[in-house]
Amino acid sequence: MDYLNAFWTGGLICALVQILMEKTKLLPGRIMVMLVVLGAILGALQIYEPFLDFAGAGASVPLLGFGNVLWKGVKEAVDEHGFLGIFMGGFKASAVGISAALIFGYLASLIFQPKMKK
User: 3-class DSSP state for residue 1?
Assistant: First the structure.
């Protein structure tokens, strides 16, 4: 049942974002920023954690989950280091995910030889 919940909630998030992209004039970058900020806000309001427990990877993989991870990192760093934690918490919490994305993206570019658009 966990796989099913992850699948349909992640799919629903992606479908809603696709509808937002199709029906508005918002650029994809702005929509991505909105999703990260929304994830951080939902984390701050303590709404995202129960959703994450229910949906698992369906809630943690989309950009909403990234915003929540940033929020958790900043919150922990502020509790530990005070004001300076605002600046270092997000980097510490998301470093592994960002590093993996860069490494695997680079490896994929070596394997598949990307071409520039004309």
Answer: coil
